[in-house]
């Protein structure tokens, strides 16, 4: 069996209904993992794509902006499908406004789903794996804003910087238990979160000018990195936040 194979595993992927999350779910399934796609919107398109490619998947509906609902969905997945080997914390939102005008409501909404729920889902996953005496893989979706400041997105930058730090902390604590904890930091990728940037001619041109590969990323570009980190081939990789950015940070 290939060291990149995920045959016989189960993956819990949040925010898998569209974009990067959907691409991750499809890619994991193509490598043999049974995917549990989780989110508050319909997963029909994701399930159709997975099954069309020969993979298997199920869906669970949950509001991933609250710890109670997120962890309840994880517990339900354990009860319904059995042990989960791979956790992908992908779900996230973004709010844009000048920092002088940024509201507490927008701050809390972003921090809750992008950082707080990431921690408590990871905690639920690790508790289950350690109690069973089994290892596993956690892959968090970070951002270029885990390394840079950005503009007009204070809560998103704070949350994604927190994801990078949290990834290291959890790796330090859980790697000895066989649980690797890593993150992937997407660059500028075609997704719902970047629609406003791509629609702004000046911002779009400025972004493209800085990306050495000369294009926006596609969701599939991120999915391959996640699948690698979930696979046995990456069993000695932990505590890393891996940029997948077309060379942006090297510029």
Q: What's the CATH architecture?
A: 3-Layer(aba) Sandwich
**Fraction in beta strands:** 15-25%
How far is the N terminus from the C terminus? Answer: 38 Å
Mean pLDDT across every amino acid position: 97
Give helix % range: 40-55%
Q: Let me know the largest β-sheet.
A: 7 strands, parallel
Summarize the helix and strand pattern as letters.
EHEHEHEHEHEHHHE
> Which class do the helix and strand fractions yield?
alpha/beta
Shape: globular
Q: Report the count of strand segments.
A: 7
Features of the shown structure:
251 residues; alpha/beta; Rossmann fold; seven-stranded parallel beta sheet; 7 strands; 45% helix; 15% strand; globular
What does this 3D model show about the protein?
Strands 3-2-1-4-5-6-7 form a seven-stranded parallel sheet, with helices on both faces. The protein starts with 9 loop residues before the first strand and ends in a 7-residue tail after the last strand. The mean pLDDT is 97. It has helices at 19-30, 44-52, 67-81, 104-131, 154-174, 195-199, 201-210, 219-230, and strands at 10-14, 34-39, 57-61, 86-89, 136-141, 179-186, 241-244. It is α/β, with parallel strands linked by helices. Helix 1 (19-30) runs parallel beside helix 2 (44-52) and helix 4 (104-131) packs parallel to helix 5 (154-174). Strand 2, helix 2 (44-52) and strand 3 (57-61) form a beta-alpha-beta unit. It has a single domain (10-189, 220-240), classed as Rossmann fold, CATH 3.40.50.
């Amino acid at each position: 069996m290939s060291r990149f194979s995920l045959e016989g595993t189960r993956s819990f992927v949040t925010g898998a209904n569209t974009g990067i999350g959907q691409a991750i779910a499809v890619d994991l399934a193509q490598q043999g993992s049974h995917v549990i796609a989780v989110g508050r919107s319909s997963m029909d398109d994701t399930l159709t794509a997975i099954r069309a490619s020969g993979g298997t998947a199920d869906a669970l509906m949950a509001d991933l902006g609250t710890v109670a609902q997120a962890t309840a969905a994880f517990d339900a997945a354990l009860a319904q499908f059995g042990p989960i080997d791979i956790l992908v914390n992908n779900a996230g939102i973004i709010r844009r406004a000048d920092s002088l005008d940024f509201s507490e409501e927008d701050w809390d909404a972003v921090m809750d789903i992008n950082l707080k729920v990431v921690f408590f889902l990871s905690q639920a996953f690790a508790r289950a794996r350690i109690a069973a005496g089994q290892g596993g893989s956690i892959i968090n979706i970070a951002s270029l804003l885990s390394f840079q400041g950005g503009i007009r997105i204070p809560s998103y930058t704070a949350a994604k910087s927190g994801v990078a730090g949290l990834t290291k902390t959890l790796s330090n604590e859980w790697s000895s238990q066989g649980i690797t904890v890593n993150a992937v930091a997407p660059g500028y990728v075609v997704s719902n979160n970047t629609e406003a940037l791509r629609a702004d001619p000046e911002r779009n041109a400025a972004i493209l000018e800085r990306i050495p590969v000369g294009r926006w990323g596609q969701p599939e570009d991120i999915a391959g990195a996640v699948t690698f980190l979930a696979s046995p081939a990456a069993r000695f990789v932990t505590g890393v936040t891996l940029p997948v950015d077309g060379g942006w940070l090297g510029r």
